[in-house]
Amino acid sequence: MKTKPYGKLTAGLIAAWFVLAASASALGVFETSPNSPPLPLLLMALTPILLFTTWYLASTGFREFTLSLSPHTLTWVQAWRIAGFVFLALYAYRILPGSFALPAGWGDIIIGATAPLVATKLADPNHRKSFIGWQLLGMADLLTAIGSGALQRFLHPAPMVGLNAVTTAPMTTLPLSLIPTFAVPLFLILHIICIAQAKRWPDRELRPDRMHSIAVHS
Predict the structure, then answer these.
(1) Is 66 exposed, middle or buried (0-12, 13-18, 19+ CB in 10 A)?
(2) What angle do CA 164, 170, 174 make, to 5 degrees?
(3) Which stretch of DSSP H or E encloses residue 81?
(4) How does DSSP classify residue 174?
(5) pLDDT tens digits, residue range 76-115?
(6) How far apart are CA 209 and CA 45, in angstroms?
(7) Could you report the per-residue pLDDT of 20-62, keeping only the tens digit for each?
(8) Which residues contact 203 (CB under 8 A, 6 or more apart)?
């Protein structure tokens, strides 16, 4: 089954998604009042994941295309998350609250720093469980960031927020808005693909050294 058309189509959709997220941010679509939960932002973060899941389940061709992608490459992409140190810097300058920035920042740094090691050492059938476990940790980090960001409005309701209060409002405007509306759902989708790929691997595959040992003794 040809996968090249899906590759071009997927690249085009990702580019269009980025332009849409950036344009909506520039128009202030994701900005909400302190009394309201950030529903437009959450909708933009969750919609691509739902669309991907629907397409993956409904289309055999697209499913085979995604499963044919290199798990090494998809895991390497997660190394970009080491840029989570930006959250720590924004917390230090009192631009973002610590209850959101610290777990999001440190979580991304840990995942980003370990991504190269996982891509080179664990992305094979011999380390199937460890590979899936790391992918789940990466998903948990992203979901925690989304959840803690959404809960900030309830933890610090408008009557309790002063003019100089530190809130997650900067995450609804450019350039930070591109993180929850584009980067986070994209990274989540990559985790989902890697887990789906790994589930197709056998539980255990003999390493070359063990295969040689069996051949010698047979």
Answers:
(1) buried
(2) 145
(3) none
(4) T
(5) 999 999 999 999 999 999 999 999 999 999 999 999 999 9
(6) 45
(7) 999 999 999 999 876 677 889 999 999 999 999 999 999 999 9
(8) 125, 128
